[in-house]
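Need a sequence for this fold. Nothing fancy.
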């Protein structure tokens, strides 16, 4: 398809921004992604993601066939059975069981690399957006200003810059992000013949929630690629070098913030966080403590659980948002990335229509109406799940 004259600027090369760029490239739309980091893999982002049928559909529609096949080959397929345990590893309840549905697990780093394939000429690294300008009438070109003093101009600017979005802070300053009152410590256990024995069979299901006393809990989920990442890449996309996180068990320990000795866990080192998780589970079953002991010491990281607070519709302009930039949600529902991918597909359609002559603003208005309806519904549902499962603060009612 021939390239059109609509120039799309995307801020942020995360899952949503890259998926949008892939979709737009397939439709022949001119797109450049501006990413603040200097390269794709500068930070530890290698956690496990659960991809639902919507996320899978979007990836199938957005990616070239060989990249979609690579995503499926490097994904894992754990059974959809969720059995709740207590801190002495007693089974307390079956929460979900569907032998006909096979969920998809992926490593975030692997997925992000797959989404980046073929986009090297369309992603500018080291470009941290600090602000943007629009024309006086608000409908003309948009100019993005970056921390290195450079600028870029396009017809539309998409904020895909995540939970701390600089675009959202300028554009919708009334849109608030709230601390949900819960902290988590993430770890992972690489799976080999020895470490597999640490886990009960039930823990190889898609996800295992474990509820302790005193507002403490743990979550465990496997990631076992169907095919080794390097082998799948060599077979499907020769020349693509993908980081291989291997097979692992993703585990996190979480509790209400009041239970932790520090409310900002980000000041602690990976090893201090690891020790803290062990200290806070001294009364748990020895088998669970053995799992935490086997966490990779340098891959432990903290998380403050936050959520956006839904806002009413705003006037549409050539600046819009997707993913965590507008609807960050509690990870309790495993829906954040899936919703960002859904946005990317919807925006691809809207922008492709505008690129072939449809008026831009009505296309974006329709996107925003749909996106805020399903996106904020997912925020509310994730907040409800989080309040029920992990003692998160509820969303304000007013
Ligand atoms: C531990 C954990 C587990 C999760 N598990 C799941 C799960 O199982 N299923 C699920 O659906 N979701 C899950 N999520 C949520 C999911 O990861 C996010 O919802 C998703 O990554 C959001 O994608 P995004 O593209 O909106 O933002 P991000 O992926 O966060 O990307 C934002 C990008 O913008 C860049 N950026 C930021 N500021 C600027 C700036 N000023 N200028 C330029 N670039 C900038 C960042 O560097 C980053 O690359 C999980 C999250 C966490 C933390």
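Here you go.
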């Amino acid at each position: 398809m021939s390239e059109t004259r609509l120039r799309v600027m995307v801020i942020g090369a995360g899952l949503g921004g890259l998926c949008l760029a892939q979709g737009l490239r397939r439709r022949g739309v001119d797109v450049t992604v501006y990413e603040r980091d200097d390269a794709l893999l500068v930070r530890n982002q290698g956690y496990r993601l659960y991809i639902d049928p919507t996320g899978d559909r979007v990836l199938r529609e957005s990616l070239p066939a060989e990249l979609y096949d690579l995503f499926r080959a490097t994904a894992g397929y754990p059974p959809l059975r969720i059995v709740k345990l207590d801190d002495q590893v007693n089974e307390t309840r079956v929460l979900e069981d569907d032998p006909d549905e096979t969920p998809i697990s992926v490593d975030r780093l692997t997925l992000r690399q797959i989404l980046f394939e073929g986009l090297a000429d369309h992603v500018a690294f080291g470009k941290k957006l600090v602000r943007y300008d629009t024309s006086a009438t608000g409908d003309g070109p948009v100019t993005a200003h970056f921390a290195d003093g450079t600028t870029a101009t396009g017809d539309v600017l998409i904020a895909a810059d995540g939970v701390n979005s600089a675009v959202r802070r300028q554009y919708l300053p009334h849109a608030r992000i709230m601390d949900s009152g819960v902290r988590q410590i993430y770890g992972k256990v690489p799976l080999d013949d020895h470490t597999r024995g640490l886990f009960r069979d039930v823990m190889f299901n898609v996800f295992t929630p474990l509820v302790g006393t005193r507002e403490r809990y743990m979550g465990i989920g496997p990631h076992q690629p169907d095919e080794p990442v390097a082998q799948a890449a060599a077979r499907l996309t020769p020349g693509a070098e993908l980081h291989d996180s291997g097979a692992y068990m993703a585990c996190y320990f979480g509790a209400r913030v009041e239970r932790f000795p520090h409310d900002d866990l980000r000041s602690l080192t990976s090893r201090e966080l690891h020790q803290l998780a062990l200290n806070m589970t001294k009364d748990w079953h020895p088998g669970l403590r053995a799992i935490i002991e086997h966490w990779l010491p340098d891959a432990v990281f903290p998380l403050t659980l936050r959520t956006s607070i839904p806002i009413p519709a705003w006037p549409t302009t050539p600046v819009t948002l997707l993913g965590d930039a507008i609807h960050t949600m509690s990870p309790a529902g495993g829906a954040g990335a899936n919703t960002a991918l859904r946005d990317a597909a919807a925006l691809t359609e809207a922008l492709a229509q505008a690129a072939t002559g449809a008026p831009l603003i009505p296309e974006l208005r329709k996107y925003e109406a749909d996106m805020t309806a399903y996106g904020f519904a997912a925020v509310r549902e994730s907040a409800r799940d989080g309040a029920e499962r992990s003692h998160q603060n509820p969303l304000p009612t007013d």
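For context: The chain has a mean pLDDT of 94.
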